[in-house]
Structures are given as structure tokens and as C-alpha cells.
Automatic annotation (TrEMBL):
One of its GO terms (biological process) is cellular respiration. The keyword DNA repair does not apply. Residues 649-740 form the Molybdopterin dinucleotide-binding domain. Pfam families: Molybdopterin (PF00384), Molydop_binding (PF01568). Residues 106-466 form the Molybdopterin oxidoreductase domain. Belongs to the prokaryotic molybdopterin-containing oxidoreductase family. InterPro entries: Asp_de-COase-like_dom_sf (IPR009010), MopB_CT_YdeP (IPR037951), MoPterin_dinucl-bd_dom (IPR006657), Mopterin_OxRdtase (IPR006656), Mopterin_OxRdtse_a_bac (IPR010046), Prok_molybdopt-oxidoreductase (IPR050123), YdeP_MopB (IPR041953). This is CbbBc protein. One of its GO terms (molecular function) is formate dehydrogenase (NAD+) activity. The keyword 4Fe-4S applies.
Length: 773
């Protein structure tokens, strides 16, 4: 029977408000959450734990529907304590869905896994820290520990965490960025000498054109929709490149505009909407550059190229050698459409390009982002008001984490300054990223896993491999707010350390503490919680990290490599976070007068050299990249794809409107018309019919990889959908078992979760779904 999907004609509007209210009511703390929402992103309020988009702290509501879900999800009345864990064994919990696990409430006391009973049991905080210290100090090599970080940790927490890890002796800092915007950091660093975007929020007012590549802001950065809506209404031309027709990028109604809220009225967002094939953006952008060069368009900024750039001649030649046939075939777009987009680019005095996971999670992501940068350099579209590059970050402080040194490959200058201050040597060899960390755990070269937030088990690729790797850790330490699958990957010993969330008051010896975060525009500002802690046994992340460090490093000389290090008073830093900021000020460039500058409501901007046309690259210029287009998108991802007898489709794994990464808030995806289910497969009707699949039929999905291992998920419902032929889409994390651990981006090591070659078969009867077992 055909599946009836009701895709709305516009995004935002009244249903957004309804949904906000529904989630607030469900939190069981309605009054508090209404108060919470009024404090989101306000002066003296807390930073929204949703996404990393910036705001101007200008009064009015600064939250969106999905920010409200994130706040209400954290600020719930339900708790998970010793009674809960006495009731369920780990084996029983592992059979539950991700939604069920997190829905049980907030983790409320520290717990230790008992392998004999298969239950988590209470442990005192002191004993937990002692266990960590004893385990770490019993290892023969500091590189046997993996220090994972997810992007919600504050600047203060992540700074202390990296300091602890480095003084202990390792650069093993895998983080969520490795699975997210890593390719952006790599490409931007190579080309312009800084791994961050060059624009600020006000640039969106001054742009004549905005290009949005591979991003779904209606769901994942809803506050960005206000900037896009305002720009569109001012006549700015927005050009979207997205594999799917995402409704918010077509028509958006601001919940803050009475007419758009209450009538069918909405603002048309995209001037042009292109639907390239998965992984085909590099070809499309190359086509734009080719048209601009071939037509010798006026926008070519010869002066900028001569003064500020290197390797233009190589690039020009590479573009001339790329033929239109390959461009059209690989992008799936017509030459005419590409020329239309190129014309918007070339005729606009100021252009911003934004991008997110649709660009970064492919095999050739680094080259694709280099091509976006090439186009901007060609037309001098960087370092002036209204123009520049904007990788739109995901987690609310993921950019700040990197600034604070959460990086498995720290820059030499960063280590130099830390060493100078500390008076000791720190490790310099590159540590492990996420994929390397999992592999090291799997072969038992690494023995301990510590996670500052996040849900590595469900976020990482190749679930079977990841579960096995995490289960081999001698000790698995999870610092978390909610129960999730990472707590269930237990071998010998594991700890759940419950922490405060953003919304909660953080009281320490020296009073109520604020923390700081950095948004996607490099604005650093303060955040203060307002609710009482969900349980007196929850500690702040900073407290937990400081006490781990204190317990571990007190008995040994700091760092197994270090000699006469300045001693760090971890507990004093924990008592007064302004002392951590003083330490940051002394050891990281750009944080002068840190404590004073965060008293300003909107905070302060970290200097971006590239935005000032100061290029910290090898050549001291902005560098063009002359890579040729990949030979083939599918075959580059899997050699098996060439010999398959069944049609090979390319799968992207993406987010629904009701989830935050591995946190599932509900079963709907309103903007795509999906209700009550997540095991759906968006498929072109012609592709489906060619294989005899009817709308609503259940199929199994098997990925084609290089190692020949069977990776399969079961019972996905085919939904006939507007998507380019040859491409399919399904939700993450349900499709993570399909992404092979070795399938990573060139130069970025990011799992290629937006290009997974797969084959489909009618649903079979014998299935063992790896996700819940
Ligand atoms: N509510 C909510 N907010 C979030 C998150 C969340 O899960 N929920 N996650 C946060 C995090 S960590 C991140 S990184 C961001 C993620 O934000 P997004 O990057 O918007 O996240 P995805 O859902 O992965 O969406 C990818 C988009 O790219 C498109 N796409 C996929 N492949 C291609 C391609 O090859 N070419 C083109 N042109 N388009 C493509 C997809 O159709 C989809 O619209 O959001 C952050 N904000
Ligand atoms: N197939 C596929 N895989 C992907 C992606 C994809 O698009 N497709 N996207 C990738 C991306 S972009 C990312 S960023 C990663 C996400 O990877 P992670 O950042 O590791 O995962 P999250 O789901 O954001 O983590 C959710 C958990 O964080 C904890 N938490 C929430 N708030 C706090 C807090 O304030 N403090 C602490 N300590 N813990 C907290 C809760 O316990 C919750 O269960 O997944 C990646 N994996
Ligand atoms: Mo992300």
C-alpha cells in the first residue's frame, strides 16, 4: 500500500510553536522550561545546547523549536538512579532503543559496572576517581588511553581535559569533530591558514548572494533560518545545493511574524534550488568556476589573485582540463543550471558560502571544500563585509573545543605556548582520531576509554566493530547527562559519571560559576545555568575533570615524559572557573583579558587571520587547489560496487526533525512528511519500480565495502520520494552499521556516512539487528 506522506508546503510557522509546547509539556517540568526558554541565549542566560549558530543577544526570543527540544530534554523531572540500575541488567538495557534509553531521565548518581551481576551499582565519587587514577597509573604507556570529547563541553572543561591528557602524556583526543567538520578544518587550514569560517553574523545582512551547500538548517540550525529569511526579503539571492528538496530552504515562515505564523504566507528562501547527486558538489562547483573562467567574467578578481593567492595557474589549467560531460555526469546537474548558479555568484558583489554534513562526510570532502574556497578566491569573495566562507558547525561548542586544544594533531605553536608556561615537555606526536582510537581499542593496543560527553557507541561508524572495540576497554568511563548506548558497551569495568547540563546552576566554593563557549562565528561568550541541579550527586564537568586529574597526577610526576612541570592546582581551578580562564589567557593566543571581555553580553570575537587577508599558510598566500575531479564516486567508495549483480545505490545517512544526533526526541520527521517511524528509506520511485519495490514495502540494506564483511540492516520501509535516481537516504544512527570502519574521507579520516554504496533486497526473515542486541 502506498505510504501517505504529507510534506508541508512551508517550514516554521504555527506547527513549530505547537511542537515546542508539546516537548515542554512532556518534560514534566513545564513552568521551569518556559522560564528556561526565555533565558536561552540572552544576556546572563545560558547558551542554547542545540546548535553552534550565533545570535546577537538582542532581546526577543532567541530559541527555536529544536533548541526548545534540546532544553526540555535536558531539563526533565525524571531520573535514572540506583533503583533503575537495580531493576535492569546491562543485557536488558542493550535490547532497548536509543529513544527509550535517553527517555528514562537524567543520570543522577555515579555508578560502576559489576561484571559478575551484569548490573551497574552505586560507587562514591572518591572511589570512582581513585579507580580512574589507579587504572591510568597502572598502564605502561600513556598512549593506551583514549580521551574522547563531544562538542557540548565548555571551553573551561575542554581546556582542563586536554591539559590533563597531555600532562598524563598523550595526544589521543578523538572527538566528535572527527566525524563532523574535520574536512572543513583540514581544507581551510591548507588553503587559508585557519580552520574556521571567515564570516560573522552581520555579514549575512550584507551579502548579495548566499550559497547553501549540503545543509538542512530548517531542522539542524533553525536560527539560521531567521538570517536566511531576512536576507531573502532584502533581495539577497540564495542558491541551495541539496540532494533533497528540504522544505525550509524552499519556503519558511517565521514563528515570530504574526502573518506567517497564522496564515499560509511564507518567505521564499531559495532563488535557485539544485539537487546534485551525492558527492557531486565538487563537480558542480568546478562547473561554476569553469563557466566564470571560460566567459572571462568581470567578477574574476585579478588583483586579489595576484596579491593574495598562490597556484592560480595550476588551478586554471585543471579547470580547463575538466570537461563538461564529466561535470554534468558527476554532479547530475545540467550545464544550464550550473551556469545559472555561476551567474548569480559572478554578478553578486558579496557572496557567502555555507556548508555542513552534506559536504563533509564524503570520500572527497577535503577537495570539495577546497573547490568552494577556489571559487571564492577566484572572485576575491573573502575578507570583506558580506563575503566569505561559513562552515556551519554542529554542536554548540565544538569550535571552542578545538580552540581549547581538543585536537589529536595539535599545532606546534599551541604546544610551544603550553610548554613555555608549564616548564615541561608535552607529547608532540599525533594521537588518535575516532577511527584510529576504535581500531586501537579493538586490537587492545589502547586499554582505557574516557568520554567527556557524547555517545561514541551510537555516533561512530560500523556499529558491530565499534561495540566490540569499546567492550574491550579495560575501563570505559562515560561522563554524561543521559543514559545511552555507550554505557552499555562494557567489558571488564565501566563508570557512569553523571554531570550537570548547560541549564543548571553550577555552584562551587567561590559561588555560582559561568562557563564560556565559542559559536560558529568565533564569538566567545558566557553562559550561566539557572535551574537547581537534577540531583545533588551530579558534579559539573569541570569538577569531574579536575578531580580525575588531581587523583591521577598527584602520585606521579606529571606526564610520563615530563620533568619539572609547574604544578597545577586542579582543585583551586575547580573552585573558581575564572582561574581556568586566566590560565587559558596565558597559554592560548587571542584570550587577552578573557575574564573582563566576557562581561559584555555578546562576548568577544576571536581574530580570524584569513578574514583580515593575512594568510598563515606555507606560501603565506591563500592557496588554490588544482585537484582533478574524482574518477568515480561510487567505485571510489567500494571496489565491490563494480562487480555487484544488483543495482548499486548510494546511501546518505541524515537527521530527522525529531533528533539531536544520537538523541531521539520522537518518531516524526515533520518536514519530510514522516510520522511515527524511523526505519524508512527515501527512494526515487523509478529506482524502486525497477527493482520491483512498492511504496511501503520492507527491504534490507546491505553495504558494499572493500573488506567483504557482511554489513546489513533490516526492515526499512521504502518511501517513494523526490530524490535523484541512484541515491537513497535513511536516518542516522540506524544506518551506522553499514558504514565500514575503513571507509573514510581522503585527508580527513571522517567516516563517509553520506556516501555508502548499498544494495537492497526484499526483507528477509532471519535478521539479527546489531543496534539493539
Ligand atoms: N535539531 C538538531 N540540530 C542539530 C543536530 C541534530 O541532530 N538535530 N546536529 C548538530 C550537528 S552535530 C551537526 S554536525 C549539524 C548537522 O547539520 P546538517 O549538516 O544539516 O545535518 P544532516 O541531517 O546530516 O543533513 C545533511 C544535509 O545535506 C544534504 N546532503 C547530503 N549529501 C549531500 C551531497 O552530497 N550534496 C549536497 N549538496 N547535499 C547533500 C542532505 O540532503 C541534508 O539536507 O546540526 C547540528 N544541529
Ligand atoms: N551515520 C552517521 N553517523 C554520524 C553522523 C551522520 O550524519 N551520519 N554525524 C556525525 C556527527 S556530525 C557528530 S557531531 C557525531 C555526534 O556524536 P556525539 O557528540 O558523540 O553524540 P551525541 O548524540 O551528540 O551525544 C549525546 C549524548 O551526550 C550526552 N550529553 C548531552 N549533553 C551533555 C552535557 O552537557 N555534558 C555531557 N558530559 N554529556 C552530555 C548525553 O548523555 C547524550 O546521550 O555523530 C556522527 N555520526
Ligand atoms: Mo556534528
Amino acid at each position: 500500500m502506498p505510504v501517505h506522506i504529507e510534506k508541508p508546503t512551508k517550514a516554521g510557522g504555527f506547527p513549530s510553536l505547537q511542537s515546542t509546547l508539546k516537548h515542554v509539556l512532556r518534560s514534566q517540568k513545564t513552568q521551569q522550561n518556559i522560564k528556561n526558554l526565555l533565558r536561552v541565549n540572552q544576556t546572563d542566560g545560558f547558551d542554547c545546547p542545540g546548535c553552534a549558530w550565533g545570535d546577537n543577544k538582542a532581546g526577543a526570543f532567541q530559541f527555536c523549536e529544536n533548541g526548545a527540544k534540546a532544553v526540555a530534554w535536558e531539563s526533565t523531572g525524571k531520573i535514572v538512579d540506583r533503583n533503575f540500575f537495580a531493576e535492569y541488567s546491562v543485557r536488558q538495557l542493550a535490547k532497548q532503543t536509543d529513544y527509550w534509553l535517553e527517555y528514562q531521565g537524567r543520570l543522577a548518581e555515579p555508578m560502576r559496572y559489576n561484571a559478575a551481576t551484569d548490573h551497574y551499582e552505586p560507587i562514591s565519587w572518591d572511589d570512582a576517581f581513585q579507580l580512574i587514577a589507579d587504572t591510568l597509573n597502572g598502564l605502561s604507556d600513556p598512549n593506551q588511553v583514549e580521551f574522547y570529547t563531544s562538542g557540548r563541553a565548555s571551553n573551561e572543561a575542554s581546556y582542563l581535559y586536554q591539559l590533563f591528557g597531555r600532562l598524563y602524556g598523550t595526544n589521543n583526543f578523538p572527538d566528535c569533530s572527527n566525524m563532523c567538520h574535520e574536512a572543513s578544518g583540514v581544507a581551510l587550514n591548507q588553503a587559508i591558514g585557519v580552520g574556521k569560517g571567515t564570516v560573522v553574523l552581520s555579514d549575512f545582512d550584507a551579502a548579495e548572494a548566499i550559497f547553501v551547500f549540503g545543509q538542512n538548517p530548517g531542522t539542524n540550525h533553525p536560527r539560521m533560518m531567521n538570517a536566511l529569511r531576512k536576507a531573502a526579503r532584502q533581495g539577497c539571492k540564495i542558491v541551495t545545493f541539496n540532494n533533497l528538496k528540504e522544505v525550509a530552504l524552499e519556503r519558511f515562515a517565521s514563528p515570530q511574524s504574526p502573518t506567517e505564523l497564522l496564515t499560509p504566507a511564507a518567505t521564499t528562501i531559495s532563488h535557485q534550488y539544485l539537487t546534485p547527486l551525492l558527492g557531486g558538489d565538487m563537480a558542480a562547483i568546478r562547473g561554476m568556476a569553469k563557466h566564470i573562467l571560460e566567459s572571462n567574467a568581470k567578477c574574476i578578481d585579478r588583483e586579489f589573485i595576484a596579491t593574495h593567492s598562490a597556484f592560480f595557474a595550476d588551478y586554471e589549467q585543471s579547470v580547463r582540463h575538466t570537461d563538461w560531460q564529466q561535470i554534468e555526469a558527476q554532479s547530475g546537474l545540467s550545464k544550464a543550471d550550473i551556469i545559472q548558479a555561476a551567474t548569480v555568484f559572478s554578478q553578486s558583489k558579496t557572496v557567502i558560502s555555507c556548508w555542513a554534513m552534506g559536504i563533509t562526510q564524503h570520500k572527497h570532502s577535503v577537495d570539495t571544500i577546497r573547490e568552494i574556497i577556489n571559487l571564492h578566491l577566484l572572485c576575491g569573495q573573502i575578507g570583506k563585509a558580506g563575503a566569505g566562507l561559513c562552515p556551519v558547525r554542529g554542536h554548540s561548542n565544538v569550535q571552542g573545543n578545538r580552540t581549547m586544544g581538543i585536537n589529536e594533531k595539535p599545532k606546534a605553536e599551541f604546544i610551544d605556548r603550553l610548554e613555555q608556561y608549564l616548564g615541561c615537555q608535552l607529547p608532540r606526536a599525533a594521537g588518535h582520531n575516532v577511527v584510529e582510537a576504535l581500531k586501537a581499542l579493538e586490537c587492545e593496543q589502547s586499554k582505557v576509554l574516557i568520554c567527556l560527553g557524547g555517545n561514541l557507541a551510537a555516533a561512530a561508524p560500523d556499529s558491530a566493530f565499534t561495540y566490540s572495540a569499546m567492550g574491550k576497554a579495560r575501563l570505559n568511563v562515560q561522563i554524561s547527562t543521559k543514559l545511552n548506548r555507550s554505557h552499555l558497551q562494557v567489558g571488564n569495568d565501566a563508570l557512569i559519571l553523571p554531570c550537570l547540563g548547560r541549564t543548571e546552576l553550577d555552584k562551587q566554593k567561590h559561588g555560582i560559576q559561568k562557563i564560556t563557549v565559542e559559536d560558529t562565528f568565533s564569538m566567545v561568550h558566557a553562559s550561566t545555568g539557572m535551574n537547581d541541579a537534577v540531583s545533588p550527586l551530579c558534579l559539573s564537568e569541570i569538577d569531574i575533570v579536575a578531580r580525575m586529574a588531581h587523583a591521577t597526577l598527584a602520585v606521579k610526576p606529571p606526564s610520563m615524559n615530563a620533568t619539572s612541570a609547574k604544578s597545577i592546582d586542579w582543585l583551586a581551578l575547580r573552585d573558581d572557573y575564572s582561574l581556568i580562564r586566566d590560565l587559558i589567557e596565558q597559554t592560548i593566543a587571542g584570550f587577552e583579558d578573557y575574564n573582563q571581555k566576557i562581561n559584555v553580553p555578546a562576548g568577544f570575537h576571536l581574530t580570524n587571520n584569513a578574514a583580515q587577508l593575512d594568510w598563515h599558510t606555507q606560501s603565506h598566500k591563500a592557496e588554490f587547489n588544482a585537484s582533478a575531479l574524482p574518477d568515480s564516486i561510487i567505485a571510489d567508495c567500494s571496489s565491490q560496487a563494480l562487480t555487484s549483480t544488483l543495482p548499486v545505490l548510494l546511501l546518505q545517512s541524515l537527521r530527522s526533525h525529531d533528533q539531536y544526533n544520537t538523541t531521539i526526541y520522537g518518531m516524526d520527521d515533520r518536514y519530510r512528511g514522516i510520522k511515527g517511524k524511523r526505519n524508512v528509506l527515501f527512494m526515487n520511485g523509478d529506482d524502486a519500480k525497477a527493482q520491483g519495490f512498492s511504496d511501503g514495502q520492507l527491504v534490507d540494506i546491505q553495504s558494499l565495502t572493500n573488506d567483504g564483511k557482511l554489513r546489513k540492516v533490516y526492515d526499512f520501509m521504502v518511501i517513494y520520494y523526490e530524490i535523484p535516481k541512484g541515491n537513497i537516504a535513511a536516518y542516522y544512527p540506524e544506518t551506522n552499521p553499514l558504514v565500514a570502519i575503513d571507509s573514510v574521507g581522503v585527508g580527513s579520516y571522517t567516516p563517509t556516512s553520506k556516501s555508502v554504496p548499498v544494495i537492497l533486497t526484499p526483507a528477509s526473515s532471519n535478521k539479527i539487528n546489531i543496534l539493539q542486541r
